[in-house]
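hey so i finally got around to running the thing on that chain from the lab meeting. sorry it took forever, my laptop kept dying and i had to restart like 3 times. anyway pasting the input first so we r on the same page abt which one it is
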Amino acid sequence: LSGLTLSMSCFQPSCFGYPLSIFFIVINEFCERFSYYGMRAVLVLYFKYFLQWDDNLSTAIYHTFVALCYLTPILGALIADSWLGKFKTIVSLSVVYTIGQAIMSVSSINDLTDHNRDGSPDNVSLHIALSMIGLILIALGTGGIKPCVSAFGGDQFEDDQEKQRTRFFSIFYLSINAGSLLSTIITPILRGQECGIHSKQRCYPLAFGVPAALMAIALVVFVIGSSMYKKVQPQGNVMIQVSKCIGFAIKNRFRHRSVEFPKREHWLDWASEKYDKRLIAQTKMVLKVLFLYIPLPMFWALFDQQGSRWTLQATTMDGNFVGYFLLPFFFFLISICFFRSVLCYTWHWPLRKITVGMFLASLAFVAAALVQVQIDKTMPNFPAAGQSQIKIINLSPDAATVDFEPQLKTVNVAAKEWTDYITFETSQLHSFNVIYGDKNRNKTINLPGGNRHTLEIKNISNIFAELISDNVTSKPEEGNNLIRFINNLPDTINVTMGDTHFGELTSLSVSNYETFPGGRTYNVEVIRNLVPCSFTSKALGFGSAYTIVINECSEQTSDVTYSEDIPPNTVHMAWQIPQYFILTCGEVVFSVTGLEFSYSQAPSNMKAVLQAGWLLTVAVGNIIVLIVAGASRLSEQWAEYVLFAALLLVVCIIFTVMAYFYTYIDPNEIEAQLDEEEKKQVKKDENLYDKPVEADSRM
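ok and heres what got predicted. didnt touch it at all, straight out
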């Protein structure tokens, strides 16, 4: 209580020298950043696995959304500075933001249109429409309040509280990082839960619902502090003034393009007929910095692919991080802090640091390409349209030989063993012949092509040979596994694995594939002649498919074999740590240094223009992703990573040349000169005004 006082000059409660209102603003920012980054962390997965879009469409819509989020801050700044003021703008757009998050949560409810209760939405178009409406409202909300909240926090301090204002911004940006970090960890965990009324699905409603709730809390907290805020009335937007000044200069220069009009030192000087010398000089300084912004969008084109391409890359990797996830994570944070302290505070050439940041981002994508090459090596080859693949499973304790005719291939299969998938040209494959000792069986086949098949054989009185269509033409997604059973017993059995019931399997019959999450074991219960037996499955990896052959199952013993149809993901997610580490190092020196450089090279009243320009580079960067990914038509993902790395490297070289010719300025010194010139001009005007008065007095 001793630290709580009431500042009578502005009627603002304060705590330990700080306005009490800033605590509401900091909490609001933490909740809002949690809401935004939490939703964004699972957005591309929602597109791919819930809306069933392919990788390219999911990536395109994701980057379109991010670009929109960084275009709307200009609109928010204009509304705040020219119409509603910062407080009303934040409240109004936060309401829009909260509604958007709520709509996103509703759009992800599977049971909303799953009328036949088969686990899939019956009206995907409705879910897509709701999602797009929600994302547009979120983009308007988050982008609109982005330039307002930090500035509104700064408004709460008096002119003599510069030290407290600086500390506030440190705490403010800490809340941003804390909110984004926690949300990107928590929301994927929430998504991993299973929920639903009629069928259990990935819990997107929870993953989107928690961010929606946090945004509602952010709005409520901000409104509660309303009576404590210092609310500065809108005073016009400097961006409008700068835009008008540039527009008039261009128009005036075009009007006076004839050679009879003398050239001026700078093209902006053509605005001097309408605008004062100070605004023109300040605009020149800003444009000089904005010119250096031209190559910067390419960095963001790479950086923001963490949430799209890199997230999708992770879904094809081994996600078993249990036990040693925290060690790389802490190493990651410590390394970032070290890198920032060594480079950012010991190297005093800002433009060189920005160049290093761009180079590191390019290097990160080379690392991502190398990881992708290793992932591609583990991917199974599936048959093309005119091909068929056949895998032979020998259920007998005797070796067998299978001839594929006419004279295509002869395969020997050991007792109770199996082969890998063998690829055939479908048009050439007419029949097969199974041989056990002196017995054989020939079957004519007519396959449709473009599919995998399993040839199940067993030596009984008459050779059993059954060709079954697998109906699997791609690797399981989201790290899931496909499991099916073959009953190699003489009796009919019922099989249940975990909570999934495979139904009744007659002797030598094969079940359909069912999906199971990876990274764990499952209890398998078999009922044979009303007698139950059970066993624990092997630990499933991520992205595999197995055929489990039940050779024996009784109360005393069980004998099962696992035939691997699709190998699990073997490239571990930990291999992504280097690319994330390098890219984050690049972002530290690029973003922090870029903003510091920009602010040091422009007058104080033009910082809003530079912030708008900086955010615009992020938006353009995401648009570049859409253009490059759409125009490249590369079939291999690693090649696309290399393309982006090469493009940024070229841009990095261009920026290095631009930086070499850049001349650093001191805006304070220039403004001091302008102040001095204005004082001299005022004196000159006063002298001119006083002379006639003196003449009259002598008369």
